[in-house]
């Protein structure tokens, strides 16, 4: 896989793109990480990626970090333990440099990490940072997908298989290599293939196939009666796309979806509106547009009604926001104003990573005042600061 294989929209920012280029060397040595540590490692790398080689330290808001790894908790002790684990885990690489010379190296995954006043500051060693930013050999790890994993073994298998998706197979791995990738080398129990298969391979394969955008099938080779090698055949999961994990299949059965399609709204846009605004709000705006009479381009008018929150009291000419929405905007502005520049940047990039299409464009133009995204924006800040964003 080369950098040209990655959709261009995933290469125009760091946290906003929701995917991280993870170097093969790092993937191959992180088998012993817990599920939380593995997710944390990916998010930290995504946050730092664009500036690797240009700055020595990186920062991310600790609460944002917790949200991105799906760890909605104020248990700072667990976060500290996970960061400590990354600092204590050794990365090892053995690869060819740009001149074709063999290079071996070793480094801690993080050279240090601190938590102070709600901000996590961390760094990579210069040697590891150089390897992590190398675009020639990497896997694309989608953060929306990784959040769904519940097993560290399954996420490790996904990471090590996904980079071979274009070739269709991992190639044959000696079982010793596979055990190392899964982080169970040195375990006498897993020296027996029956145990390895029952406890590691089968459950991990089942979760990858259910959770991710690929389907993997294990095959083994024997020497005599003993299994000595394993490989995984890889296909794209037709049910899950890498940048559209939830394809909204269920939304197609909603009566409102049929009304949208009958108006001439495309399938993708209809599902996007239903996900962004909810069936009730879309139905309300459909009724509003139908009540205007003589509208030449009803789909365009509906888009404006959803974006500007048209109501019978606030028609297209005024498009005035409701008092409730105005109050929400004030609360959002107050919370944003109290954030540090580093936190504001992390907040913005985290929210952008959840958007695509017209919703992303509108947020990039209007920021936290984006009318198209106002419900999602309110939900985002309510998740971070429930007390400050409470109604009433």
Automatic annotation (TrEMBL):
SUPFAM superfamilies reported for this sequence: Winged helix' DNA-binding domain (SSF46785)
Name of this protein: Initiator Rep protein WH1 domain-containing protein
GO molecular function, one term: DNA-directed DNA polymerase activity
Domain Initiator Rep protein WH1: 20-161
Family of this protein: Belongs to the initiator RepB protein family.
GO biological process: DNA replication initiation
One Pfam family of this chain: Rep3_C
Superkingdom per UniProt: Bacteria
